[in-house]
Every structure is written in structure tokens, then in C-alpha cells.
Amino acid sequence: MTSAHNGNHAAYFAFRDELLGPLRAVMLTGQQLCEAGRLLHARPEGLSLYGIPAPEMELRGIQLLGRTAIESVTDSHAAAVAAAAAEVCPPGGNAMIVDLFCGSGNFGLHLGRRLGRPAYASEIDPDVYRATRNNLHKIGDSTLELNQLDYRALLATLPSRSDHDIYAVEPPWGPAFTAAGLDLTRTSPPVREIIDDIRRSRNGRPCLVAIKTNDQTAHDSLARCFTDAQHLRSLTPRPTLPPGANMNYHLYRLCPVHGA
Ligand SMILES: C[S@@+](CC[C@H](N)C(=O)[O-])C[C@H]1O[C@@H](n2cnc3c(N)ncnc32)[C@H](O)[C@@H]1O
């Protein structure tokens, strides 16, 4: 098999297309999970969720659909973002974590565990929801409350608790992933709309937002989605893939909007 890390970028993009196309709603086999680790994260163990590396997932009963294998925030990235969030948030208090587009749930899980907070998650796709529910059961997790809901419905049930509440925002990219870079005004829904929904659900009370992008955003769209927000940290894990395929993470503080 050709590795994307031998300079064959075509292999990465072909595999990406397969995971988001024909394998989108297909439960991956142990062999396919290892292949995903190799092609997306340089080695089979690079795909690791819930503390379980790809080579062990099948044996441990972990279920991942093709789409989630590529969309998920892996353990090393989620742990790094959670550590950065812990640096800017005081310990204790009654703050919550809300993972709005949770997929595997791994992002919210790490944030909740690292910060010692209750975590709530919404996932709208019934197949992804079922797989994630299975996985949380297999790992015996009771820290992440998983809901099969549209993110707006979850927001409606969760009034603000603290200025340090954290929202994980990672909507599907779809047509936002362009040759010119990731255009966050074209995710579904657009990131700016999600930020406005969060603000409304909190009556403007400050909070933090953690967002994943790739390493090539287009049209200054990240900054445009976070006007009236304070940039706190950006994490840029060592790139191992073609430009546009590596993941970056950003932490913002949403501030009250003047005149709102
Ligand atoms: C990019 S993935 C997020 C991956 C996730 N961060 C992880 O670590 O696995 C986006 C997820 O949001 C879900 N989704 C899409 N629209 C949604 C909505 N309106 N409300 C809740 N979830 C939604 C998709 O089904 C998909 O699983």
C-alpha cells in the first residue's frame, strides 16, 4: 500500500473521498481502521479515540463509520486542546462542556475529563449516534451525556452556567473544504450562525469556544466568524499530511456584543 507520507498526496485524498463517500455510513473493519490510521495519521496507532488505538478498536468493540474515522478529533489532539483550555479556565466552579457536533464524542469527552466538568453532546445522524452510544458504553463512560439531537435543540436545554462554559464547534465541512482552503462561512451550518446561536442561548453571557479547522483557511473566514471574540490560543500540531489536510485548533472567548 502507498503511504501519503511518502509524498503521495493522491493516496490521502483518494482515501478521504472514500471515507466521506462510499464508506461514509459503513462500519469500518479492524483492517480499515488501521489503514485509516496509516493514511490519515502516519501510523495505525495515530488514529486513537477514547484512549484506544486503531489496532485495538475491533477487539474492544469500538465502532467507527467511515465519515467519523476522518472527522473525529483524535486523542492526542483532544488532549492538547483540553490542556490549553485548562490553562485559561480556573478549576472548580459549575461550568459545563457542550460538544455541539459530537461525532465520536471524543472532543467533549477529553474536555470534560481534563477540566473535571459535566459534558453534554449532540449528534443528529442516527448511525453516528448509535455507534458513539455503543462506544461510550464499551469504555464504561458516564461523564459525557450523549443526545440524538440537532445542536440547536441541545442549546435550548442548556442555559448558561458560568463565564467559563466551553462549546466545541465542529460542523461538517462539506463544500467548505475547497482548493483555496477551508471556508468557514460555508460549513453546514456556517460557523458564524452557530456562534450566534450560542450567544443567543446564553443571552450574550461570555463563554469559550473550541473549534477545529485545517491548516489552510480561506478568505480570512476564521477571523470573520469570530468578530467580537477574543482569540486565546491556536494549536498547530506538527503537520504530517499535505497542506489543507492537517488539523489546527483554536480557542476563543465570546464577549458581549456592543449594542446588542
Ligand atoms: C465534523 S463531525 C464532528 C466530529 C467530532 N468532533 C469527533 O471528534 O468525532 C460533525 C458531526 O456533526 C453531526 N451533525 C451535523 N449537523 C448537525 C446538527 N445540526 N446538530 C448536531 N449534530 C450535527 C454530523 O452528523 C457529524 O457526525
Question: Under CATH, the topology of the largest domain is which?
Answer: Rossmann fold
Radius of gyration, whole Å? 18 Å
Order of helices and strands: HHEEHHHEHEHEHEEEHEHEE
> What's the architecture of the largest domain in CATH terms?
3-Layer(aba) Sandwich
Tally of structural domains: 2
- State the separation between the terminal residues, measured CA to CA: 56 Å
Question: What is the tally of beta strands?
Answer: 11
Structural class: alpha/beta
Mean of all residue-level pLDDT scores: 93
Q: Which small molecules are bound?
A: S-adenosylmethionine
Which regions are unreliable across 5 or more consecutive residues at pLDDT < 50? 1-6
- Backbone shape: globular
The CATH class label of the largest domain is Alpha Beta
How much of the polypeptide forms β-strand, as a percent range? 15-25%
Helix % is 25-40%
According to CATH, the homologous superfamily of the largest domain is Vaccinia Virus protein VP39
Main sheet strand line-up: 5-4-3-6-9-11-10
- Can you summarize the main beta sheet? 7 strands, mixed
Model description:
The chain is an alpha/beta fold and 260 residues long. It folds into two domains: 4-71, no CATH class; 75-254, Rossmann fold, CATH 3.40.50.150. Helix content is 36%, strand content 18%. The strands form three sheets. Strands 5-4-3-6-9-11-10 form a seven-stranded mixed sheet, with helices on both faces. The N and C termini lie far apart (56 Å). 44% of the residues are buried. Bound molecules: S-adenosylmethionine (SAM). S-adenosylmethionine (SAM) binds next to helix 4 and helix 6. InterPro entries: SAM-dependent_MTases_sf (IPR029063).
